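Render Lipoprotein in 3D.
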Amino acid sequence: MLIKKTFLFSTISAIVLTLLACNSSSNEGDQQTKKQASEPKSSNTAQTVADTNNSQNNEELPEYLKNLQWVVEADVEKDLKAAVEKSDYSFLTLASRVPVVPGIDPNEAADLISRCGQKYIPGLGDVIFDDAHEKLHSKAMSYAKQYNKELLKYCKEASM
């Protein structure tokens, strides 16, 4: 009888803890949804990005666009040269559970990362907020693909 009561108590405790965890996750999701809903999603953002490309004042931009402004002036050749001079052969990767290395065969990615390292692409995530964000996101992915493809030979030479 005592074993049945202990089992019942353990089961009820596990259910209560699961419900509390689900409720907590749901509240965090609601807060994230509210935050995303408050972000501007109009086509005026694209004009704002275009305007700020010509000026140095990025304070008016939403945070998700500020985080990708580096790509506007990014230069693969110059950045790669600077990295190689510092012996930095780290691949640009997407922050995800499984390493995603743009421009590199997924079957080779884990091995290359273990040999040469990785650094996350600044400002990239899995949520696209509006057209301006999508354009910068796409440009950052193209930059990362080109950078990683050109970095590949330096990584292989350095790790031999």
